[in-house]
Amino acid sequence: MEAIKTRRSIRKFRETPVPENLLKEVLNAARLAPSADNAQPWKIIVVRDEQMKQKVTQACNGQKFLVQAPIVLVVCGIPEDAFQTVGGYMSSHVIDASIALDHVTLAAHSLGLGTCWVAWFKEEKVKDILGIPEDVRVVALSPLGYPDESPERPSRKNLEELIAYDKYE
Amino acid sequence: MEAIKTRRSIRKFRETPVPENLLKEVLNAARLAPSADNAQPWKIIVVRDEQMKQKVTQACNGQKFLVQAPIVLVVCGIPEDAFQTVGGYMSSHVIDASIALDHVTLAAHSLGLGTCWVAWFKEEKVKDILGIPEDVRVVALSPLGYPDESPERPSRKNLEELIAYDKYE
Q1: Distance from CA of A107 to the nearest CA of B (A)
Q2: pTM greater than the 0.80 cutoff
Q3: Chain A contacts of B48, Cβ < 8 Å?
Q4: Residue B87 counted as domain residue
Q5: Which of A63, B13, B76, B159 could hold B69 in an S-S bridge, CB 3.0 to 4.6 Å?
Q6: Do B168 and A45 count as a contact with CB atoms less than 8 A apart?
Q7: Is there a domain that residue A167 lies in?
């Protein structure tokens, strides 16, 4: 609960590398994430190579905080491994990949590391750069590193707008 | 991190009602969830009415643990309010609704409450029962209540299967 309340999206990072044991702990938090039918239809690519990070950043419309972070995580969903009929209408891979990355963001924060959900990217370019197969989808990216800023809590809608009781309102 | 490690999917609940202040705290955890462009394109319907719970349970193929829990949460994504081009190809409403529910599951656990991601449901029936508009999608459901079981940790893939470095492998 504390992590949920104090986590922020971090877009400025120190150069300090992420210790290997903390990276493992963060990735393990993703591993523990639940998924539909326990299919775990996702893969996270840990991008640390400087050239690769630069290319990936370009594929994210040049959002510079990505290349500034020591690590960029690229979260892929694997439709063919997923539960096919969430609600009778969709594959679970987007949900399952999202749960995994949410676990990462909260675990990272609890270890003093910063992350930021990145939705603004060109999937085809990211796939080309990292050799991601055609039938695998890129769901989101995130930088990972030590924060070099302490952003204020952003505004949110009121609970009344987000919650309804016993029927949709 | 502790919550991530010890959370389990709960499918057996005590009859004890969920105190109003804990419900609010859990819903507030969803409210604090990040979303693409901070659009917060989701709504959670808190189902407590017994008849409604029974109908919703039927729409979830009769998964009895739903009706046994004092509360069923129905998590909706609102495509028209969402960031339209995650990766250049999809609406963010599934991701954003998933982050919100993941926050709920972890916050609930940290408060001694149990939840369970439910993907096996008939969206059209759930929408009919709760009056959910045509252009709003049901992404997932979860029971919420005091656990009446302590499941073992389910198996997960090894990190080697889930993680790759600098390129997809």
Answers
A1: 5
A2: yes
A3: 165-166
A4: yes
A5: B13
A6: yes
A7: no
